[in-house]
Amino acid sequence: MDITFRTDHGIFNYRVCGVILHEGKILAMKNPKSPYYYLPGGRVKLQEEAQAAIERELKEELGITPNVVRPLWFNQGFFTEDVTADQFHELCIYFLIDVSDTDLVNRGDYFEISEADKTNHFYWLSIENLKTEYLYPIFIKEKITELPEVFTIHSEYQ
Questions:
Q1: CB of 99 within 8 A of CB of 66?
Q2: By the 8 A CB rule, do 65 and 59 touch?
Q3: What is the secondary structure of the chain as a DSSP string?
Q4: CA-based torsion, 125, 126, 130, 133: positive or negative
Q5: What share of the chain has pLDDT > 90, as a percent?
Q6: What is the pLDDT of residues 75-108, one digit of tens each?
Q7: What predicted TM-score, i.e. pTM, was given to this entire model?
Q8: Are 124 and 26 in contact (CB under 8 A)?
Q9: What backbone phi and psi angles, to 5 degrees, belong to 64?
């Protein structure tokens, strides 16, 4: 069971995301329902550790066995979703991921992967041009060039 629930005041999510970098680019994704980019990952399941969740999610979404380097950020996000207008309170742990032992960087600047009943679209976005991209959460655009050496708490209100 995913740790997400809806109330009269909005939706709560507990998620994990992978920060995957290669040669000045970051791996982001989109799905047909969303006009914006976001980082690969997903919801944590009840009784699942966060690192196990990011490993599972990246295996499901990308078909890789990731090498988790370290957690970077614990983000407390408060936002209105652009498509559905739902109010969210989201907790997300962002992990730095090393994919050098996978074929991920050889798949091209754009590739698609089908997962269950959906197709995810993946893009290697230039970090240099990231500030002009429609990417959430916004703090990634600024903090991606200054990865913390220690696990850092961040809050973002959109």
A1: yes
A2: yes
A3: -BSEEEETTEEEEEEEEEEEEETTEEEEEE-TT-SSBB-SEEEPBTT--HHHHHHHHHHHHHS---EEEEEEEEEEEEEE-TTT--EEEEEEEEEEEE-TTSSGGGG-SEEEEEETTEEEEEEEEEGGGGGGS-BSSTHHHHHTTS--SS-EEEEEE-
A4: negative
A5: 93
A6: 999 999 999 999 999 999 999 999 999 999 999 9
A7: 0.95
A8: yes
A9: -120, 160
Q: Do the beta carbons of residue 106 and residue 29 sit within 8 Å?
A: no
For residue 127 the two structure tokens come to 């970090």
Q: Residue 147 is which amino acid? A: L
Quick one: tokens of 32? Answer: 């047909």
43-75 pLDDT, tens digit each: 999 999 999 999 999 999 999 999 999 999 999
